[in-house]
Amino acid sequence: MNVKLYYDDSADLKWLADKTVAVVGYGSQGHAHSLNLRDSGIDVVVGVRAGRSRERAEEHGLVAMDVRDAAAAADVIMILTPDHMQADLYRDAIAPGLRAGKALAFAHGFNIHFGYIAPPADVDVFMIAPKAPGHLVRRLYLEGQGTPALVAVSQDATGHADDIALAYGRAIGATRAGVIRTTFKEETETDLFGEQTVLCGGVTSLIQNGFETLVKAGYQPEIAYFETLHEMKLIVDLMHEGGPRAMWYSVSDTAEYGGLTVGPQIVTSDTRKRMEQVLADIQSGAFADRWMRENREGRPTFDKLREAAQNHPIEDVGKDLRSMMSWLKPSVADE
C-alpha cells in the first residue's frame, strides 16, 4: 500500500500546547471537535452567533463568543460552518483577525480548492476531515476509540503546518483510528462525487425507483419498503464490515446469483459514463459554481427538489413502519 497513514505515535500534542483553537460553528462537527479538543487539554473557544448554538456550547462548559472575536483571539481557526456560508464568514469575521503565523483549518476542502477563500500567504492552511458525522466523532472519542480522518496541507507558512494538523487530528481522536494523507483537491472532488453518485444521490434514487416499480405493479407499499429500503442497512453493514465479498458470502445463493446477473443490467455502462460526466462537472468547478449561485438566488431549485423528496410516498410508509419497530431509535426527521 502506498497510502500514508498516521497514528498517535506520529502526532504530538505539543504543537497545540501553547495555542488557542477557535472552532467556528457548533453544529454536528463543531460540537464534537470543540469537546474533544477540550478533553484533550487544548485551549478552545467557540465562534458562534448568539442563539441556541451558543447557549449549547456554554451549557457544555465551553467559552463561546462572536466569530470575529474568536478568530482574533485564536492561533488556529477551524471553520466548521456549511460550505456555502464560509466565504462570506471568512471575509467579514475571520480575515480581519488573521495575522502571520496563524493557522486556518477546514474539515472539507470545498472553499479552498475552488478558490472561494484565498488566505494570505503568511498563514498555514490545513484540513482534518473526519470520515463520520459529529455525533460519532464524539461518541467514539469518549469510548477511547476514534474516527478515521483525512489530512492535507495546502499552505505551510510556518514550516510546521503538518505538525499542527496531525496534533489537531490527535486531539479529536482521529489518530487513534488512523489519518490518511490526501490533498484538498482529492478530498473535495472525491467527496462530492461519492455524495452525488453513490452515497446520497445514487442510493436514494435506486431505492425510490425500486419502491415505485413494486407499488406500480400492485404490491403493498409496506412490503416494497421492506424489500427496497429497510433491508438496505443489513446489506450495507455487511459490506462495511468485510467488503462486498462478506456480503455475497452472507446472503443466499439465490440472492448472489440474482444480484451478480441483474446488477449490471441496472447500473449499466451508460450509468458509468454518466458518473464520469458528473466527475468532470465537479472537477471543472461547474457544480460548485451552480451551488453557490443557487444559494445567492435564494435556493429556488434546491427548495423545490427538497420538498418533492420529502413528500415522496416512501416517507409516509417508512415513518409508519418505523413507529412499530421499538428497537429503532426515533429519527429527528420523524419527530
What does this structure look like?
- With 335 residues, the protein is of the alpha/beta class.
- It is 58% helix and 12% strand.
- The protein is built from 18 helices and nine strands.
- The chain has helices at 14-17, 28-39, 52-59, 67-73, 83-94, 110-113, 134-142, 161-171, 174-177, 184-199, 201-216, 221-230, 232-250, 253-266, 269-283, 286-296, 300-310, 313-323; strands at residues 5-6, 20-24, 43-47, 63-65, 76-79, 103-106, 124-130, 149-155, 179-181.
- A nine-stranded mixed beta sheet has the order 1-9-8-7-6-5-2-3-4, sandwiched between helices.
- Strand 5 (76-79), helix 5 and strand 6 (103-106) form a beta-alpha-beta unit.
- Helix 2 (28-39) packs parallel to helix 7 (134-142) and helix 10 runs parallel beside helix 11 (201-216).
- The longest helix has 19 residues, at 232-250.
- It is globular.
- The mean pLDDT is 96.
Strand content is 5-15%
State the end-to-end distance: 45 Å
Shape: globular
Structural class of the helix and strand makeup? alpha/beta
| Number of alpha- plus pi-helical segments | 18
What profile does the largest beta sheet have? 9 strands, mixed
The gyration radius over C-alpha positions equals 22 Å
Uncertain segments of ≥5 residues (pLDDT<50)?
Answer: none
Order of helices and strands: EHEHEHEHEHEHEHEHHEHHHHHHHHH
Number of E strands = 9
Mean pLDDT: 96
Strand order of the largest sheet: 1-9-8-7-6-5-2-3-4
Q: What is the helix fraction of residues, given as a range?
A: 55-70%
